[in-house]
Amino acid sequence: MHKLHHGLHHFRTEIHEQNEEFFGNLAKGQNPDVVFITCSDSRVVPNLLTQTDPGQLFTIRNAGNIVPPHDDHISGEEATIEYALEALNIKNIVVCGHTKCGAMSGVLNPETLTNMPSVEKWLAGAFKARELVEKHYTDLDYDGQHSVIVQENVLMQLENLRSLPCVARKIWKREVELHGWVYDIETGDVFIYDPIEEEFLPIRHTEDGSLGLATEEGMTR
Predict the structure, then answer these.
(1) Could you identify which of 71, 83, 129, 134 might form a hypothetical disulfide with 153, taking C-beta atoms 3.0 to 4.6 angstroms apart as the criterion?
(2) Predicted structure pTM score
(3) What is the pLDDT of residue 217?
C-alpha cells in the first residue's frame, strides 16, 4: 500500500498540477470513443496498450472478458454497455482477450477451479469455447489449445453482445460496430479479428505507410 500512497501523492502534485486544464475539461463530462471490454488481468493496461488518454476508453473488466448473454437477470456488464450506448452514444465496442490468460486456463482445466466456486460459475460463460477446442483442436499441444480458446472466447463474447437488446438495436440501425482483439503480452502484438479471413490478424504498416492487417501472420488456430 505504501507504493500506492506514494503514487497518489505523485499524481496529485506532479501529473495533475501540470495538466490542470486537461483534468478540468474531464471534470465537465466524458465523451469516450470506445467501450473496451477486457480481462481483469493486471498485465493488461488498456490505456497503455492503445496509447489513449483518460476519457477516451469506457472500460469494462472482469475475469475472462466475459459478457453474459441477455436474460431476465440483468448483469452489470449489460447495464454498463446500455449506458455507454444510450447515454454516451459510443459507436464501437471492443472485446479484448489476451495470451497467458488465467481465466482461460481455468476453462481448459476446470479441476483447478474446485476451490473457487464463484469463479467456476462465472467462467461457465466460456465453457462452450472449451467444447470447440475438445471437438476440433485435440491435435494441438496445451499452448496451442490455450491460444485457440482465447480466440474462441472473444468470438463467443461478441455473439453474447449481439444478444443484448441495446446492442442489437444499434447494430440494426448501423449505429455500432463490434471488434474482437487478442493482445499478446510477450510480443506486444494485437491481433484483430477479420470476419472475411475468419482469422485474428496483426496490425502492420503497409507499403504506403498506413496501418492494415497482415493476412499472412494470423494467430495459431
Answers:
(1) 129
(2) 0.91
(3) 63
